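To illustrate the input format used throughout this study, we show a single complete record. The first block contains the structure-token representation of the backbone; no residue identities are included at this stage. The design step must infer an amino acid for every position from geometry alone.
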């Protein structure tokens, strides 16, 4: 990732490190285009039925999976007049995000927990039984939509939503 110059606002606030860009709403344009088009009107934030869109740095909308999951209803897209959010077709992928299970996972530490699997609407997280041990999570990246349903219920925040290296983004397809 390239480092960008620090903005005057960040400098004056004492933020000398460049933060990673926020996770934008589904079907958002590439970050530079999104920032250029988004008017920060909050129409997408107000339209989100699950309430996971919020104002982030600079007033731009971002997803907060700690508040819930994305149902991919596309209400945010339909309300976006400057077209910073664009859905090419009904089958277009909203983003390349996928769940990743980290080392803080209770099941991987030998403690019975299946919360993420129970929360996953697509069944992308399943648990494999282990002889003499706790069932271990198995993540099916092909089935994962990156909706974030598994994120908030995880008691240790062992779930991360990120772009995996082996899944091409829509611009690469």
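Output of the design step:
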């Amino acid at each position: 990732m390239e480092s960008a110059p620090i903005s005057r606002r960040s400098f004056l606030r004492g933020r000398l490190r460049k933060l990673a860009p926020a996770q934008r709403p589904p079907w958002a344009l590439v970050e530079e285009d999104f920032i250029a088009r988004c008017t920060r009107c909050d129409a997408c934030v107000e339209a989100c039925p699950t309430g996971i869109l919020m104002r982030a740095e600079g007033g731009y909308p971002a997803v907060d999976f700690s508040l819930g999951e994305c149902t991919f209803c596309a209400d945010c897209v339909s309300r976006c007049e400057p077209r910073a959010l664009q859905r090419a077709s009904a089958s277009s992928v909203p983003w390349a995000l996928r769940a990743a299970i980290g080392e803080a996972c209770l099941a991987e530490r030998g403690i019975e927990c299946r919360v993420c699997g129970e929360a996953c609407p697509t069944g992308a997280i399943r648990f494999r039984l282990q002889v003499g041990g706790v069932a271990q999570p198995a993540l099916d990246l092909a089935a994962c939509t990156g909706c974030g349903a598994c994120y908030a219920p995880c008691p240790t925040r062992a779930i991360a939503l990120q772009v995996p290296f082996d899944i091409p983004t829509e611009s690469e397809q």
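Structural context for interpreting the output: The chain is about 15% helix and 15% strand. Residues 167-173 have pLDDT under 50 and may be disordered.
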